[in-house]
Amino acid sequence: MNADIIRKETPEERELNKKRAELAKLEADLTQHELDLATLQAEMHDFESRYLRIVGTCYAQLDEIDARIAEALAKLNPNNRKSQEQAANARAQAQESAGTAEAVQEQLQRNGFKPSEKLKKLYRDIAKRVHPDLSTNEKERTLRHAIMAEVNHAYERGDNIRLEAILREWEISPESIEGEGIGSELIRIIRKIAQIEERLRIIEIEIAQLKESDLYHLKIRFDTAEQEGRDLFAEMVAQINQQITETNRQIADISKRLAEIIEKRVVV
Amino acid sequence: MSDEQDSNKGDLVSASNRNLSIKSSSLVKRGLSLVDCSLKPIGPQPIGEILCFKGHSAEVTCVAISPDGRFAVSGSLDKTIRLWSIENGQELRQFTGFKGDVKTITVSPNGNLILSGCGYGSYIDNVVYLWNVEEGCELRRFEGHDEGTGIHCVAFSPDGKLALSAGWDDYIRIWNVESGYEIRCFKLEIETAELPHGSYLTTFSPDGSRILCATSDRFFYDDYDDFLELWDIEHGCIICWLGCYGIPEASSITLSPDNRRALYGMYEDFNLANIALIDLENKKIVCELEGHKDTVNSLIFSPDGERALSGSSDKSVRLWDVENKREVYCFEGHTDSVTSVAFSPDNSLGLSGSKDCTVRLWRLPK
């Protein structure tokens, strides 16, 4: 080997290689973060729909009975504005709860989002290739955004087949071929790095926001209880059912009183 | 084409999900407050005092926890036994009708019955009372101990069919719980009438075929210091007599569930009151556990035999790791001497009664 043949690295090339390494690391970070966010969102959606299906339905029942009580009381005191208002509010609440409970019934029933390692790997593989922040071209970014949204939905559904199809389509599409420009590559990499850093920041904010939500706090309690061998769903349903029984007793009393009053009026 | 449809569907799902999150937030909030306010707490529980049962008007002398772990029972010099809920701390029942001060109680293995005996007080009560927990009423009286004598301790056989009572008349009497008849009695060779509270213990062996009787006291120090006697229920004979030597008089005694070890609590001596761990098989002291500053009034082994609780006149309750011979935790809160201690069946909770008229429930470290 002749030493002359080995070309010496120019300062730009050294910088380029450094930035390439930095970019590679950030890209790996980004795919992991996207996966974390997508997993958290999917888990929370899944928990929410389970919670609403099981506990929300009980609340809807309870609210319906509460509304009937308020309405009966309003009938008992037709001149009392406050009880009229209360009846209207209780009815609105009951309608809202019933609406939520119905909406969730229509959704696909899934029990527990537990992504397999295979599904996670598939997600990472796709995100590594398709992520919008890996492109600096605005038009391409829009396209990648659309694909990524679909990837997220498929991941949430646990749809391996769809994810594999997306990956296959991407591999044969022209977008998968990267540009050859040498002179502007350094600039392109620097911009990519900036984009990825921005996206990482946003993901962290989104995760933090999700973790501050009531839904997340509730989910944590359910998870902890499950680890302790408790079924919080059953406990909550039992508790609300007890309230329903109690409220039903009240409504029976009120109905009786109402019947008596009506009878008296008829007699008078 | 089909891809496009699919992705449209995906957007719809996500849109409806997003709406759901906004709509459901009130249901989520209500659920959260229900979980936090009405249900049993979730997650690792803090160690220490959980509940303080108040109601007794005089010193609490004895405590027990029901075998299902749901109720605490306490007896007091106010001549009542009280039943408390471990779930919410409420007083559920009161058992009254004693002539003397309640000194000893035990709950039957099925949790339906409470056996109790009296001692102390201006009027000494020689009757052993049996109570129905569910109904809150007296079920039966076992009468046979001499007039004018009190009861040291009571116990149920492991199958719950027999009851045992040890009286100041130096007799251990065995009763048929169902019929109420006395089926056997053993005369002890020592005088027990003046034995201090807690220093005299009689119980059934784990298989129910024998009776164990352990004591240590200054009155007999010169003759035979400490002993563990084994009586055969069938034949009524003493099977063995284990002497342990060189221990100062005991203020309290407990036996491990397998009856191979005993703990002896001691009186205060120069601001120290140790607990001696005794190997009954090899008849020797294994070690002394240091910590209490005043007389150890009550000792109990945990159901798993690995740990022990002690209550002392220094107002503290201490948890001991018997296997590793060390103090695990010191529970403070009582404002007067602790007279009695008990374990929950799952080893996770401790109960203590005190001269301050309260009963306290403690969560023990794992």
Task: Write a short abstract of this structure.
By secondary structure, chain A is mostly helical. In chain A, 81% of the residues lie in helices and 0% in strands. Chain A has helices spanning 11-76, 81-106, 117-130, 138-157, 160-172, 185-212, 214-227, 232-267.
Features of the shown structure:
heterodimer, A: 268 residues, mainly alpha, 8 helices, 0% strand, elongated, B: 366 residues, mainly beta, 4-stranded antiparallel sheet, 1 helix, 47% strand, globular, disordered N terminus
Task: Describe the model.
- The complex is a heterodimer of chains A (268) and B (366).
- Chain A has eight helices and no strands.
- The mean pLDDT of chain A is 84.
- The longest helix of chain A has 66 residues, at 11-76.
- By secondary structure, chain A is mainly alpha-helical.
- Chain B is mainly beta and 366 residues long.
- Chain B has one helix spanning 2-38; strands at residues 48-53, 60-65, 71-76, 80-85, 91-96, 101-107, 113-119, 128-132, 137-142, 151-156, 162-167, 171-176, 182-187, 200-204, 210-216, 226-232, 238-244, 250-255, 261-266, 273-279, 284-292, 296-301, 307-312, 317-321, 326-331, 338-343, 349-354, 359-363.
- A four-stranded antiparallel β-sheet of chain B has the order 1-28-27-26, with no helix packed on it. In chain B, strands 2-3-4-5 form a four-stranded antiparallel β-sheet, with no helix packed on it. Chain B has a four-stranded antiparallel β-sheet with strand order 6-7-8-9, with no helix packed on it.
- The radius of gyration of chain B is 25 Å and the shape is globular.
- Chain B starts with a helix and ends with a strand.
- Residues 1-20 and 218-225 of chain B have low confidence and may be disordered.
- Classes of the chains: A mainly alpha (268), B mainly beta (366).
- Chains A and B meet through α1, α2, α4, α7 and α8 of A and α1 of B.
